[in-house]
Design goal:
The chain has six helices and ten strands, in the order ααααβαβαββββββββ. The longest helix is centred in the middle third of the chain and has 20 residues.
Length: 216
């Protein structure tokens, strides 16, 4: 963990982590929870003193609605157990093992985000990348400059498109036409999605991958 972070910067990092876990962008948060886009950005970037206690209560409400268990003390001070998903959203079997594993994963994710800049992270919400990446797996990477994305060809990438509000995990493929690409999953049912270079808002390769639950 970067011990040079101020209290307000550390709070901002925790807000970003919670938003990433919920797989929401700032616009999503504004639309669903009426937290102003620029206010949220200010909290995350520690502007004007950063996150207040009232702001933290709003973030806590967002977490509860998104099925993420967290405490006000953790959001404000980083004290106590980190966030984890509610039991009723998990497989019925091995719930205790699942929660313990997920808490460990979230601690690792926080460490990754606090020790790298321009990270992209997400919890997978579909089946398009099975069998290598399962629904509810966590992935993270470091954002890559868009002008050099050809180095990420034929590999799994975390991608945010201008037209989409959330991140997705797909394999990046090149088309014959310059600046044309398509996105594809490992699953046979996944449909090819054609995109132009200009539609990619941000992208990273996958350098961190964790599975919170595996059938035994």
């Amino acid at each position: 963990m970067d011990m040079t972070l101020s209290d307000s910067q550390a709070r901002g990092q925790r807000v970003k982590i919670l938003r990433a876990l919920a797989n929401l962008d700032r616009k999503n948060v504004e639309e669903r929870y009426h937290i102003n886009f620029n206010t949220l950005k200010g909290w995350e970037l520690a502007r004007h003193g950063g996150l207040t206690e009232n702001g933290a209560k709003k973030i806590l409400m967002m977490c509860e609605c998104e099925g993420i268990q967290c405490t006000l003390n953790w959001i404000l001070h980083g004290i106590g157990m980190g966030p984890f998903f509610e039991k009723n959203l998990k497989p019925a079997s091995s719930t205790e093992h699942y929660d313990a594993t997920e808490r460990k994963i979230l601690r690792e994710l926080m460490f990754f985000q606090e020790n790298n800049t321009n990270t992209l992270s997400m919890k997978i919400t579909d089946h398009e990348m099975e069998p290598h990446y399962q629904k509810n797996d966590y992935v993270a990477g470091i954002q890559y400059p868009n002008h050099g994305i050809d180095k990420l060809l034929n590999s799994p990438c975390i991608i945010k498109l201008n037209s989409k509000k959330t991140l997705m995990l797909r394999i990046l493929k090149k088309e014959k036409q310059e600046n044309d690409y398509h996105l594809l999953g490992y699953a046979p049912h996944c449909k090819k999605q054609h995109i132009h270079f200009s539609k990619i808002e941000c992208i990273s390769g996958v350098i961190w991958h964790r599975k919170p639950f595996e059938e035994r």
